[in-house]
Amino acid sequence: MSGSSVVAASGSGSVARASDFYGHRTVRWADARFARRFDGAAAPPRPVFYGRAAVVDAWKSWFRFLLAYAISAGLIFGLVVLVGGPGEGAPLMVWLNPLTKVLVYSMIWPVATAVRPGRAPEPQ
Question: Is there a contact between 58 and 109 (Cβ–Cβ < 8 Å)?
């Protein structure tokens, strides 16, 4: 069953999930590898690790992660409200600390890529 039919069946069509932002990319990656291995398809194109394309890809990945972080934080705050407020929900709020650290640390790669995007390989 596809993700859209599950959401439609549950009646929560407006709720975004992290799989909505990561899922299609992962499935596309797995399909290309499977087709190469079992169907004899051509190798998928290699990603560009230099120049403007690398910078754009690094920031797109980080913004996807930021969106997943926002969804996670929203769910945590929703659960805190559900259990009765900040007093009873304090153990849930503890999870925001590692989530925020990972978000901040994950920004190192896009910033480093923007500062030094790398050069195209020499033609051989």
Answer: yes
Q: Is this model's pTM higher than 0.85 or not?
A: no
Distance of alpha carbon 103 from alpha carbon 121, whole angstroms:
31
**Cα(58)–Cα(107) distance, integer angstroms:** 9
Cα-flanking dihedrals φ and ψ of residue 72, to 5°?
-65, -45
Residue spans of the domains in the chain: they are 1-45, 48-124
One pLDDT digit (tens) per residue for the chain, 124 residues: 444 433 334 444 444 555 555 677 778 888 888 888 888 888 888 877 888 888 999 999 999 999 989 999 999 999 999 998 888 988 989 999 999 999 999 999 999 999 988 887 787 7
Question: Which residues are within 8 A (CB) of 22 and not within 5 positions of it... i.e. 6 or more apart?
Answer: 64, 68
